[in-house]
Amino acid sequence: MRTPFIAANWKMNKTTREVEEFFRVFQEKLGNYNRCDIAICVPFPYLGLASSLSPSGTHIHIGSQNIAQEESGAFTGETSATMVRDVGATAVVIGHSERRSLFHESSQDCSIKIQQAQKHGLLPILCIGETLSQRESQETTAVLQKQLRESLANIALTSGSQLVVAYEPVWAIGTGKTATPEDAESTIATVRAELAAIFDERIAQQTRILYGGSVKPSNIHALMEQPNIDGALVGGASLEADSFLQLVQFQEI
Ligand code: PGA
Predict the structure, then answer these.
(1) pLDDT average, residue stretch 96-122
(2) Which one of 96, 98, 105, 120 is the catalytic residue?
(3) Residue 175 CA: which ligand 1 atom is closest?
(4) At residue 206, does pLDDT exceed 80?
(5) 178 falls in which pLDDT band (50, 70, 90)?
(6) Which runs of E-coded beta strand occur in 102-163?
(7) Atom of ligand 1 nearest to the CA of 214
(8) CA dist., res. 38 & res. 50, Å (int)
C-alpha cells in the first residue's frame, strides 16, 4: 500500500505575512491528521520560516522548488542542496516544466540535481510531462520514457520511498484543463512500467507517482480513485490553506 502524497508548489508567490497566515490556519485545522504524506514547496527565502512554522511530523516535508547542480562556490544566484537542508527543508521539486521550458533545464540536469538531493538528504520530487503538440502527435509515451531514462540515469535507489515522480502534462498546468482520470491513470501506469524497467518491479510498486495540472478539491477524488495515482502536485489550489487542506484530507470529504 502506497501512502498518498499531496504536494503544494507555491511557485513565486507569497510574502512573509502570507506564509505565516497559511501555516497558522493549516496547523490549526490539520491537527494530528496523518493519513497522507505532505510536501509544501515554497520559494527559497521562506524555507526557514516555513520549516519553523510547519506542523512537526515525519509525514510533512517543507521543500524547495529547485536546487543547484553544484555543491558550493562561484555560482551567483544559485542555492545548493546543503543550504536548503541547512534551513530545515527535506524535499525538493526537480525538473518542473516551468524550469524545463523557461530556464532550459534538461533531463541530464535533473539527474545531477537528484544526485545532489540524495547526497544531502532531500526527497526528490521529479516532474515529467508532455506538451500539447507532443500529445497531439502521439509522442506522450516516448517523451515520458526519455525524460525518465535521462533524469534517472546514474540514480540508485534501495527503496521506492526515496523518490516521488510527478506526471504533469504541460497543457494542464495552470490552464484549468485536467487530463481525465482515466487518461491520467493509463499514462501513469506506463510511467510505473518504465520505473520497473529502469529499476525493478519492487521499486516501481513502492514509488509514489503523482498527477499534477489544475488539481483542485472538486476533481481530486476522481483522480485518487485510480489505482496508479498516488497523489497530486498542486499549484494554484495549494496557495490557500483551506483549499490545500481539502486536498490533503480528500479521504475525509
Ligand atoms: P496548477 O500547477 O495546479 O496550478 O495547474 C501545478 C504545477 O505546476 O505543479
Answers:
(1) 98
(2) 96
(3) 5
(4) yes
(5) confident
(6) 123-128
(7) 5
(8) 13
In 3-state terms, what secondary structure has residue 37?
Answer: strand
What pTM value is reported for the model? Answer: 0.97
Nearest residue (by CA) to ligand 1, atom 1, is: 235
* pLDDT score at 99: 98
Amino acid 58: pLDDT: 75
Residue to substitute in 5, 6, 9, 64 for testing ligand 1 pocket (most ligand atoms within 8 angstroms of CB)? 9
Question: Quick check: 246 and 33 in contact, CB under 8 A?
Answer: no
Q: What are phi and psi of 122, to 5 degrees?
A: -110, 135
Give the pocket of ligand 1 (CB within 6 Å): 9, 168, 173-174, 212-215, 233-237
Ligand 1: residue whose CA is nearest its atom 3: 235
Q: Is 96 a catalytic residue?
A: yes
Alpha-carbon span 194 to 6, nearest angstrom: 22
Nearest CA to ligand 1 atom 7: 235
Q: Cell for 143?
A: 517523451
CA nearest to 13, candidates 58, 37, 39, 46: 46
The amino acid at 44: F
Residues in the chain, total = 253
Show Cβ contacts of residue 198 under 8 Å, excluding neighbours closer than 6 positions.
148, 149, 152
The percentage of residues in the chain with a pLDDT greater than 70, rounded to a whole number, is 100
Position 177 pLDDT exceeds 90: no
Cell of 72: 558550493
